[in-house]
Amino acid sequence: MKAVILAGGFGTRLAEETMLKPKPMIEVGGKPLLWHIMKMYSSHGINEFVVCLGYRGDIIKDYFVNYHQLNATITVDLAADTCEVHEHQVEPWTVTLADTGLHTMTGGRLRRIRKFIEGETFCMTYGDGLADVDIGAAIAHHHREKRLATVTAVRPPGRFGVLNLDAAGESVQSFTEKPQDEVGWINGGFFVLQPEALDYTTEDPECVWEKTPMERLAADGQLSAYRHHGFWQPCDTLRDKQTLEKAWEAGAPWLKS
Known about the structure:
It contains eight helices and 16 strands. It is α/β, with parallel strands linked by helices. Strands 1, 4, 7, 8, 10, 13, 14 and 15 form an eight-stranded mixed beta sheet that branches. A two-stranded antiparallel sheet has the order 2-3. The protein has a two-stranded antiparallel sheet with strand order 5-6. It is globular. It starts with a strand and ends in an 8-residue tail after the last helix.
């Protein structure tokens, strides 16, 4: 099975980091978010990846082209123009880096990598979020449901404390600091898809996966939800990055999924 990773957006809400590099290359624990996502899938036996490139896709290409040297102890002889590799650690990954357009939206990017799916069930997620989702369980759920698409449903981290007021609105009956169920279930990424799900997309650069395609899949009864109750954290702001750094220091739960 392959995993498709959307890695082409501009990441404007994290301009501090994304002025010079795409958001999936923001580092947590000294490694790009993209690396963390791929390690997560790899821990579930998925080692073939299709990465949808857009903004600063050259940086992602350079990272994987030079991955061997970046993760090895080497001796460089400048006069002889040689490079000797002494030891290295390389993951068993096959990575297809597909240019899907600078301004293409998520649905259009998916449609443009269809030829790399080869008619098989595949996983798909965003290149800017980490979670300890049990990918194997999500895939099993998808096969049991026999629908074209499965989305991992999560409850977002609460941002504010909630006050429960009396009828007059003057007395606080209870207070809950940042409850996780402040809102309902949301799209947490980590999809499992049949290739036919891409029939709901188009190559139109304006096609947004999270709008018409997902809405139509749901209306047709072809979208199931795999509920995830564990760790889930997007990286949309500098504060989110700091949260992920703390989680990394605490043991990186997404690498133990």
